[in-house]
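[#protein-structures] MJ: dropping Multidrug ABC transporter substrate-binding protein here for a structure pass
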Amino acid sequence: MNIFVGFGSAIEALRANKVRTALTILGVLIGVGAIILLVSIGQGVKEEVSGEIKGLGSNLIFVMPGSGGKGAHRGPPGMFGNKITYNDILAIKARSNINLKVLPLMFTSLVVKHGNKSRQSMIYGTTEIYPEILNQKVEEGRFFNASQVNSQRKVCVIGKTVASDLFVSKNALGNRLSIGGQKFLIIGILESKGKTMGQDQDDLAIVPITTAQSFFGKTSIDRTAIQAPSEDRVEETKRIVKRILLRRLSEEDFEISDQKDILEMLQKITGILSVALGGIAGISLLVGGIGIMNIMLVTVTERTREIGIRKAVGAKEGDILVQFLIESVMLSASGGVAGIGLGYGGAFLLKRFLPTAITPWSIFLAFGFSVFVGVFFGVYPASKAAKLDPIEALRYE
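AK: finished. structure tokens for Multidrug ABC transporter substrate-binding protein:
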């Protein structure tokens, strides 16, 4: 049987039942679109977070609250209370025998207000080296200095979102901002960083850590970034920091990690996420394949006399098998192509809210899987059609 004749016959057969064809394609379309969209979200998250981490430098380590337990009793960081204080962090710099840059960070969410406008924003308490360590530029004004940290000055540096939302018609610089009911002088506006994982990185106000402790009643340190002298001294730095903290805290009270540890954990999480999401979408595609098999079985039944006539005039079993297999593959492949468009369009629209990244391998994988589904679920109906007895088929009403 000429393959082109087979394709022509398949197209005519599919066009004869447009509604049935469209509904059958829909199942595969949704499955392929879901695979591409969900994998693109997983890949996008991985690329965005990896870029953020790498942008901070490879010689950075982090100290975070511990899980407060061991083995089966371990939980998320800080689950059983955060015992790390500002004095613990000051001890790291004071007692280290190598030159370390230590940046403590405390977070809280408070209402910021100017005039009759207000919003709930993240408030960071930190020190003067924040821009240097976390690669954050000040677009207008300046960041607070060590003297303002030591004297608990009520000054702040705000993000673009806070500035644009609360100061619509005037420059925020030099104005007063109410943070948690306390008045702060705005001395700087940060350069915009946009969104990460759908979270606005510009919706924040940064104040001296001593001021945050004094006026907001927060004493624990949520995270500490420590810059080692060089990348090859990261492990040495981790050992020194651990030794100093163990003199003040128990081993369960803190956790130390570097950029490599974070990236490895991220790769594991996103890998599991991509496989899980892809698996869910794959199940949807398999359901579409079952739909193809059911429709092809109905088609074989409806065209029993046609099959009998074709066999009577000399068509071989292989010719019938190929024709129905082509129809099945065309159904799934059409759904695959449409699904690629759906997944690509969905990823494009979602990019405003979530990081997405469509990779060529995900497109080839999804389309290849759709063709495989057409072949796999089309073999049984096609073989059933090929094995029909021509005499019995001609008698079929």
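MJ: nice. The chain has two domains: 3-51+265-395, 59-258.
AK: one more thing. The mean pLDDT is 82.
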